[in-house]
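Course assignment 3, question 2. Fill in each field.
Student: A.L.
Task: Predict the tertiary structure for the chain below.
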Amino acid sequence: MKKVKRWTGLLLLWALVIGMLPLKASASGVSLTYRQTAQGDVILGLSGLGDGRTLYGVALEVTLAGTYAPAQISLSPADPLAYSPGYGAQVTSGGGKTKATLYLVSSLALNSGNALTLGALSVSGMGIIPESARVLLLDSDALTGGLANASLETVPVVQSSDTESPDLPFGASHSISAPQAAHGTYQVLSSARANQVVTVYVQPDAGYKLAALTVTAAGKPVALLDMGNGQYTFRMPDADVAMEAVFVDSGVYLPFTDIDEKHWAYGSIQYVYEHSMMKGTEDTRFSPDVSTDRSMIVTILHRLEGSPEEGQNVFTDVPAGVWYTAPVAWAAENKIVQGYGNGRFGPGDVITREQMVTFLHRYAKYKGYSVAASADLSQFRDLDTLSGFALEPMRWAVGCGLINGTGDGLLSPQGSATRAQAAAILARFCQNIH
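Answer field:
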């Protein structure tokens, strides 16, 4: 990729919109730095920018070991509240490598001196250190020549000398062998550098649970730390490692006569039932096709949080002393729900698909989970029926696989969520969002 005309064209368009022209692009003397936090996040930065230089845009091409899909790779901006940068990525894979071209563009200065922290680079939520990098920097120093002939320049990738960060002596990159096991899956990087913290995400199939997860290097066990919610971490040794997972029957069976194992949401219903998130409408009936109301979804989130007693009831249509009073009060206190206005919450109203993902998006923010995923919704023919308040939550929900279209190019944001659909979305949320 000698020239970046597609990227520069896009960046120029952003520049015209936010009034950044004229521009100059150069990366001479710049290095891409990385450091790893104790939690395993890999923080990227740029050093050697030069005194007095102000950047408004960065295009960064990183080469990663392993093959990854575009949706797996993300760069979480270091200070989104201060910069509110435009962010995007273009990903190509081949030969066991992945190249991701990332860009940040802002109407405000991105740096305040010789260095710039870009943010946390991750693959499926796991920090990853680039093997190599090229960069294109945009500033306002020079003439109106523009970017017609601008190209990415190769820059060294070096460990950060930030004295406030722990001095972790990263070594050479080694492979991680992780053959998939029967009755479950687990996600992990295909390689990592020595001393890097590696995260493993485990997801048993419906009706199964993890019995054993082992990591070995040269025949010796590597210590695993259970972080909860199916997430495990280990520190990469200075050697190739092999992983093995064993899943066994969970022994959890449903008492409902109106669904069987052939039902498309059986596994999800089994999950929410096992984790006491949803019960049957009767002892032997789950009623998978019955619509779910707003109070039930809020109550489920309240159960996930351990049923805390906090918040005051601010809605005139939520009576005191009923089963959903405390959940709605808690959700309102923590800005997970806002109601319709005029003091109304509508507890018995059927919840729409866009309302449900909005509740989950706000709950994810409340928990401090990543909400960086963002899908292009232009593929859906009924996008104009999506309410403005639900645009960002729906992009996130589609981007991280919580919700899909209803077929024939439709998103159906105003459609109701049945109990089976709610179970599927909630199970995906608990298993995949961290």
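Instructor remarks: The two ends are 35 Å apart (CA to CA). Residues 266-432 form one domain.
Grade: pending
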